[in-house]
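Standup notes
- DV: blocked on the single-chain target, sequence here:
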Amino acid sequence: MAKRKTKFVCQDCGYESTKWMGKCPGCQNWNTLVEEIEAEPAGRKRGFVTGGKRTAKPEPITTIERTEEERISTHIKELNRVLGGGIVPGSLVLVGGDPGIGKSTLLLQLSATLSERKERVLYISGEESVKQTKLRADRLGIGNDQLFVLAETDVEHIEKVIEEMNPTLIIIDSIQTVYLEGVTSAPGSVSQVRECTSAFMRIAKTKGIAIFLVGHVTKQGSIAGPRILEHMVDCVLYFEGERHHTYRILRAVKNRFGSTNEIGIFEMKEAGLEEVLNPSEIFLEERSSGAAGSAVVASMEGTRTVLVEIQSLISPTSFGNPRRMATGIDHNRISLIMAVLEKRVGMMLQNHDAYVKVAGGVRLDEPSIDLAIAVSIASSFRDSPTAPADVIIGEVGLTGEVRRVTRIEQRVIEAAKLGFERVIIPEKSAGGWTPPEGIEVVGVTSVNEAIEVTLGGISSGSPTFEL
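- DV (later): unblocked, structure below
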């Protein structure tokens, strides 16, 4: 009998080594290499997508007939938006998020909407028993004879059930709990996750069945398991949200059948997740009028315009090192914008702590929020409030200039719909289109000019504080 070979595999990034190391060379994390026995994965014996004999031949792309695949509507508008219009038959979708954020609740509600339209749905739980899933379904008011529940972790048995049922949609909750007999490592390991995902990908492509996989996340917020997992699937969705907020954001970071960076917004209630069709009203409903340090920005999330409030608090520090804290915005962006305000506007901020937050628990990454951050910091520094009816949009350069942003017309239209009266935008973006009635468009070329327009000018020295 041949000696069985072993290897050491990083459980975070999938790096393989013939010997154990304390620190993984791939992801630089400590104590992540685990010994596994090398074995021929069961998924490889079955072939790739064709599943049997390889009879496919290459053909010119010009001769391939194009067919439009009809999508399956989920009847959940926010989920349809993120998926690009609905579920594509034969697609493999990975859903990740923090524990307790609502992944299983969302997918159970998705199962209910499809089963109510006489679509056969198979919900496979590796973490709950059938009775536990039934309790959760009763709490959500879900009950239909086309929704089938199975508590199973053996992929080979799951395949047999799929062969017998031939469902329209399959949900695997979660991919870290299922296993293949031919792979010797434990469920949730890199090898098991990779091979089980490969098996489900083969089922999805050969039978035309849409499959949703739930993925656990690491402490850093990324999906646990090898990075190849996200490359194998067709769509990667992240379910985000703060524990102390009821709002949840479903974000697409990869989508082969639609736009990336689309978001869907839900509110967690007693009876499950409810859609938020107008998130701007939700994020602005508790805004205090006349408060210094507040500015409203129109941010683009995929194809949707979201108006959110950015709040800043600037206060003198008693220590040598001032604090820079941010919630919902990259910490480094705050430091960059404060450096521009110091150098180009003359605001002495090096002796002040800065706390910047996006209200409502949403996270913003696009460049158009720079100018609103700068104005909110200046407003708090001077203790002078901005006008409640102002919306501020623009990217800030290191020389203090305000640069143009994309889809400016769409942003202004959304601001007008919500009753705002004035919008401050880059001057380069102000021409070539007609703003809607009832809203004034002001073009600015620099941060200094934007602060003069919104706050009526600002002194170059520090304001008076009583320490």
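- Follow-up: DSSP finds twelve helices and 21 strands in the chain.
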